[in-house]
Each structure stands twice: as structure tokens, then as C-alpha cells.
Amino acid sequence: DIHFFKKTYAEYQRGFQNGIGNLWKGLNEQHALTKDANCGLRVELQDWDDEQYYASYSWYKIGSESTGYKLSITGFNSASSLGDSMDHNNDDRKFSALDNDQDVSNNNCVNTMGGGGGWWMGSCTHSSLNGGEYTASGDRGGIGWYHGGKRGKKWKSWKASKMVLLC
After folding, report:
1. Which pLDDT value is given to residue 82?
2. Contact 110, 98 (CB under 8 A)
3. What is the structure's pLDDT at 138?
4. Nearest to 128 by CA among 58, 77, 66, 71
5. What is the model's pTM?
């Protein structure tokens, strides 16, 4: 369902899932898991030709609700098969959803760049893993990862995404 991640801010806070593999661990739980631990993150993306790509980070923390669930992510592993598309999100960006625009642009980047899926936006983004699924030729609005690394393509939508928390 390409609209599965079009959720409210409250839903992103609590977390949600369906029976076919779509899951979002809530922002509250992500904060609780990362606030006192040294966590990393591995982003795994699947292209339309079913090739797998990844980006690894050694530091991943989510702030509390009072900070807008600010993102802190550093330590990009240059051996990753993808480029660093979280760099633009790492300026303590707040989490935005359709009903809670916390980006720094004049429009709601979740709507214009993220296909309606919540994400850490600034003056929009270089990544949006909760975007809708689009065709292989689609660009912004789908699952987005700007720096394609070994894939080479920029802003072409991905077939699937996974975020793996490493604590």
C-alpha cells in the first residue's frame, strides 16, 4: 500500500505496523532505546531490479518529544554501497508529519518531497524512507535516497526500505 506511511504525528509517536512487513517503531520508543545507549543505524534499500544497497552510521539518537524528536546521526561508513543522504537531516532536524510541519521551509516537505510519509525534514531532505512506492522511473515523493552511491541514480524511487537500529 503506497499510502501506508501517511500517518498522523501521534501515530508516528506510538508506532504502527501491518501484517505484511510494514513497521514503524514509534518515536517515543526510538527515543527510549537511543537516549542512554551508543546506537548505530543501518539503512537498507532495495532497487527495482532487486539489488540491495546499504548505508551504515555509527551514531543514531532520537531526541525527546519536547525537542520535536530531533535526529542526531553521524559516523557515516564510507564502505557503504550508498552515499550519505542523512547528512542533510543531521542538523538536529525535527520530525515532521502531515499534521505537524516542523521543517524549516515555507511549505510542508513531508507533502512535497516525502509522499506524505513522516520524516526528519529541514529545507526538505536528501532522504525520505517513509515515502510512497512509485515506479522505477519515479522520483521525489517515493522512497527517497538522494546519494545513490554504487547505484548511481539520484532521486529515483526505491522499491523497499529498512532501518535497522544497532544498539
Report:
1. 95
2. yes
3. 57
4. 71
5. 0.90
Residue 54 near residue 45, CB atoms below 8 Å: yes
pLDDT score at 27: 98
Q: Phi/psi of residue 58, each to 5°?
A: -90, -10
CA nearest to 84, candidates 51, 125, 118, 117: 125
Neighbour tally for 51: CB within 10 Å: 12
The rounded distance, in Å, linking the Cα atoms of 166 and 96 is: 23
* Cell numbers placing 20: 505484511
d(CA 68, CA 51): 35
* Alpha-carbon dihedral 75, 28, 146, 140, rounded to 10 degrees: 180
pLDDT tens digit sequence for 65-111? 999 999 999 999 999 999 999 988 777 799 999 899 998 887 788 87
